Amino acid sequence: MALELTYILTTTYSFLLSLIIFLVVAPALLPRLFKPYPSLPKVKQLIVRDAFLSFCMATTVGLRAWYIYFFTDQVPHDVIWHDSPLVRHTLAIYTGYVIAALVLMLSHNIGQMSSLLHHIFSTYTGFVAMTYPCLMYCANNVLMMELSNPFVNMRMMLKVVGYEKTTAYVWNGLAMLVTFFIARCVSTTIGTLRFLHLALAHPQFWDLPLCIHVCYFGGVSLFNVLNYYWFYKICRGVVKYTADFKTTKEK
Q1: Per-residue confidence of the chain (251 residues) as pLDDT tens digits?
Q2: What are the recorded Gene Ontology BP terms (predicted)?
Q3: Where are the domains of the chain?
Q4: Which letter, b or e, does each residue of 190-204 get, where b requires 16 or more Cβ atoms within 10 Å of its Cβ?
Q5: I need a surface site. Which of 57, 62, 212, 235 has the fewest CB within 10 A?
Q6: Beta-bridge partners for 184
């Protein structure tokens, strides 16, 4: 099945826009948002720019995915083949960003190997989900996880520029905890149960192409494990921060 031109164009547009945000918008805007930014080492400036780009795209993708879930009829959870142009365009936006992030990671030597592998797998799953108009509920469920990423990336920016002890950092951390739990634990658990029910209740599910099984079974397994692991680490961080705060207050 061929990928339609409209989604190729959206992916290309998202790719180019992501590069513009990283190379042009971020260097111009970040010094106005964070006064310490211009004095940061080059490596840290690149980290902040990368987090800013991810913040912008995650906000766009996350809000679109939750809007589609609550306010449209394009993501029925009990059918296999069902086209959803809104979901596929959102996938195109996300995939264009991921490809741009890959290019920037390789050209600017930022990010770790785990991030590189994550982006490669996300590019594969994005193209598969865009190409085949099936399991749109599951595809949108993955995109809904992006709701927590603006706060994750804001935390990174605040930390790198030296705002780790500010009230903004604390409130952003609380928002990250809440949105992560909702978007990456509750939402994905419901989505996973519905995905498994669909696989068990519909024999035709097993007739889908192999790439779809790799995309969705692999994606569901990988992201669920990572989500619960990351949430565990976030909770540990909250406990540690609270303990340190109490110790400081007692002194």
Answers
A1: 678 999 999 999 999 999 999 999 999 999 999 999 999 999 999 999 999 999 999 999 999 999 999 999 999 999 999 999 999 999 999 999 999 999 999 998 887 888 888 899 999 999 999 999 999 999 999 999 999 999 999 999 999 999 988 999 989 999 999 999 999 999 999 999 999 999 999 999 999 999 999 999 988 888 888 899 999 998 988 888 777 766 666 65
A2: lipid homeostasis
A3: 5-250
A4: ebbeebeebbeeeee
A5: 235
A6: none
**What tokens does 45 get?**
């400036």
**Which residue's entry shows tokens 């031109």?**
5
> Whose structure tokens read 């296999």?
80
